[in-house]
Write a structure and sequence with these properties.
296 residues, mainly alpha, DNA polymerase, domain 1, hpI Integrase, Chain A, 2 domains, 13 helices, 57% helix
Length: 296
């Protein structure tokens, strides 16, 4: 029965909740990790008690798991038990009674405006490899410009089709988490970069960003192109699409954008998720004050 519950839960998340492949993988891993830890003592999900999960929490903490990892695993377990309560008639969720450690207060790493400028110009300044098509540097430039211009998640950018870009309205239609749709503005440089790439690569319809095999580009390919340009830059830390998203949000707030607008642009369901960027902005203001004020 336990295996059937897990299979049905994952199917429910994938079809009815439109959970991403990464989210489904996290759920699957969290369920398997708990079963492995219980070993022969595991007699089924419906037999588990709150004390079992408190013991599991203590085990993870003793193993020096990061708080974020612990919270992610328990979020999956809570979602699973919520499903069992609402859809499978379980009386209560034992995980709901477990108090988790508070999340670590780590601020997002943000690129400076000058670092962003350096990164975005690299694709068209660096000679392409011998095996590269002439349109690939233009594609890379368009990808980086769009990440920073619109603050998209990597999954959102990969799934874009040509029809999602409104050149007249200067917007992009984005399908975010939970299949929620939002319209996000695109800046002039990003639109121009996309248009140059489309013209050079003869991209008329279908997927917007293509691989060398003219298939939809993958997350792995984008990770590789970011690593390539990082090596050629003066940026002293690892960059990722999410760091470009962090930079997008922080630079907007630095320039006076209101939090609600940034929340809407990022596609956050909760304002509290967006509020971390206000802490980044405050820290940057403090640094500027400490550096510039004669009596700081």
């Amino acid at each position: 029965m336990s295996e059937a519950d897990e299979t049905d839960f994952l199917s429910f998340q994938g079809t009815e909740k439109s959970a991403s492949p990464r989210t489904l993988a996290n759920y699957r891993e969290a369920l398997a990790a708990y079963r492995t830890w219980r070993g022969v003592k595991f007699s089924g999900w419906r037999d588990a008690s709150a004390d079992d999960f408190r013991d599991y929490l203590f085990h993870l903490m003793k193993q020096d798991f990061k708080r974020s990892t612990i919270r992610l695993r328990f979020a999956a377990l809570r979602s699973f038990y919520k499903y069992l309560v609402l859809r499978r008639g379980l009386g209560r969720s034992p995980v709901a009674e477990v108090q988790l450690p508070k999340p670590e207060k780590s601020l997002p790493v943000v690129l400076s405006v000058s670092q962003i400028d350096e990164l975005l110009t690299l694709p068209l300044r660096v000679p392409p490899g011998k095996a590269a098509f002439t349109w690939m540097p233009m594609r890379d430039a368009a990808i980086l410009e769009l990440f920073y211009s619109s603050g998209l998640r990597i999954s959102e950018l990969i799934s874009l089709d040509v029809s999602d870009i409104d050149f007249l309205g200067e917007t992009v239609r984005v399908t975010g988490k939970g299949a929620k749709e939002r319209i996000v503005p695109i800046g002039g440089p990003a639109l121009a970069a996309i248009q140059r790439y489309r013209t050079e690569a003869a991209v008329i319809s279908g997927p917007l960003f293509l691989s060398s095999h003219r298939k939809r580009i993958t997350q792995q390919a984008i990770d590789l192109l970011l690593k390539k340009y990082l090596k050629l830059s003066s940026i002293p830390f690892r960059i990722s699409p999410h760091k470009l998203r962090h930079s997008f949000a922080t630079h907007l707030l630095d320039a006076g954008a209101d939090l609600r607008s940034v929340q809407s642009l990022l596609g956050h369901s909760s304002l509290s998720t967006t509020q971390i960027y206000t802490h980044v902005t405050k820290e940057r203001l403090k640094e500027a004050y400490d550096t510039a004020h004669p009596r700081a």
